[in-house]
Amino acid sequence: MTAATLAPTVFVPVARDRATTWVAAGALAALALVPWGLEGGASSLALALRGELVHVVLVALTALAVVCAWRGAARVTAIAAGLAVVWAFAAGFAAGVKGTSFGAGAAIALVALVACFARAIARRGAFKGDPTVATIVVVVAALLAIFIFFPVGNVLSAAMFDDKGAFAPGLAASRLFAADIWEMQCLTGGVHCGVAINSAVLATLVGFLSTFVGLVLALVVQRGGRRYAAVTKVMSILPIVTPPFVIALALVVLFGRTGLVTAILNDVFGIPRSRWIYGLPGVALAQLLTFSPIAFLLLHGALAAISPALEEAAQTLRASRWRIFRTVTLPLLKPALANAFLLGFVESLADFGNPIVLAGNYEVLSTKIFFAIAGAQHEPGRAAALAVVLLGLTLVAFWLQQRWIGKLSYVTVTGKGDSGLHALLPPWLRRACFSFAVAWFVFTIACYAVILTGGLVKDIGRGDMTLTLHHLSQGFAIDPSSRATMFVGSAWDSLFTTLQVAAISAPLTAIVGLLSAYVITRHRFAGRRAFEFLTMVSFAIPGTVIGVSYIVAFNVAPLELTGGMAILVLCFVFRNMPVGVRAGIAALAQIDKTLDEASSTLRASTTRTLTRVVLPLLKPAIVATLVFSFTHAMTAVSAVIFLATAKYNLATVYIINRVEAGEYPLAIAYSSVLIFIMLAILLGVQALVGETRLGRRATPMLAGGG
Amino acid sequence: MADPQGGVVFDHVTKRYGAVTAVDDVSFTVAQGHLVTLLGPSGCGKTTTLRMVAGLEPVSGGRVLIGGNDVTLRAANERDVSMVFQSYALFPHMTVLENACYGPLAMGTDKAKARELAREKLAMLGLAEFENRLPSELSGGQQQRVAVARSLVLEPAVLLFDEPLSNLDAKLRRRVREEIRELQQSLKLTVLYVTHDQEEALAVSDHIIVMNGGRIAQEGAPEDLYERPVSRFLADFIGDANLVDGELAPDTHGASFAAGGVALPVHAHGMAAGPATLAIRPQRLVLGDPGPGIPGSVKRVAYLGSRVEYVVATAWGELLIFDGDVHRLRRRDEAVAVTFAPDAAIVLPR
Question: Which of A1, A666, A703, B72 makes an SS bond possible with B87, Cβ 3.0 to 4.6 Å?
Answer without folding.
Answer: A703
